[in-house]
Amino acid sequence: MKSRQFNKEETKINTTPMLDVVFIVLIFFIVSTWAKTETGVDTSRPSCPPVRYVKKGHILVKVKASGAVLINQQSTRLSQLLNHVKALRSEYPVANAIIIADHHSQTGDLLKVMDHLKTAGVENISIAADKDKE
């Protein structure tokens, strides 16, 4: 039987390609972690004053056909309406007014009520018609 003789060059494993892959992976991790830590934007948030709560209410003014005026279901005279609205505006600074006029009420009374509300500083005024109760 013939014995085989091994050549020393055949038994060596070439590790050069493996080292190339290891160095490429090492360079990839170094570059990716460096890029990850360097990206980003440093932001500064603006400061704002604290929020203030403002009471908001409605002022209901009803004008009857007889010329009587009700403000929030309380009877008042047209001459005292301005004082009542100013008192309500001190309690509710951002108040809206709703004028409910009877079907047979006088247009002049409605305009006087609107004028008093504007003078008192009410900015939003809505006009509604009361249902006809004939």
Secondary-structure blueprint:
Layout: H1 8-11, H2 16-38, E1 56-63, E2 69-71, E3 74-76, H3 81-91, E4 94-101, H4 107-120, E5 125-129
Parallel strand pairs: 1-4, 4-5
Antiparallel strand pairs: 1-2, 2-3
Strand order of the largest sheet: 3-2-1-4-5
Alpha-carbon distance between the two ends? 133 Å
Number of strands: 5
- SSE order, one letter for each helix or strand: HHEEEHEHE
Task: Tell me about this structure.
With 134 residues, this protein is α/β, with parallel strands linked by helices. The chain has a domain at 56-129: Nucleotidyltransferase, domain 5 (2-Layer Sandwich), CATH 3.30.420. The protein is 39% helix and 20% strand. The chain contains 4 helices and 5 strands. It has helices spanning 8-11, 16-38, 81-91, 107-120; strands at 56-63, 69-71, 74-76, 94-101, 125-129. A 5-stranded mixed sheet has the order 3-2-1-4-5, with helices on one face. Strand 4 (94-101), helix 4 (107-120) and strand 5 form a beta-alpha-beta unit. Helix 3 (81-91) crosses helix 4 (107-120). The longest helix has 23 residues, at 16-38. The radius of gyration is 43 Å and the shape is rod-shaped. The model has no long low-confidence stretch (mean pLDDT 78).
Can you give me a brief rundown of this structure?
This protein is α/β, with parallel strands linked by helices and 134 residues long.
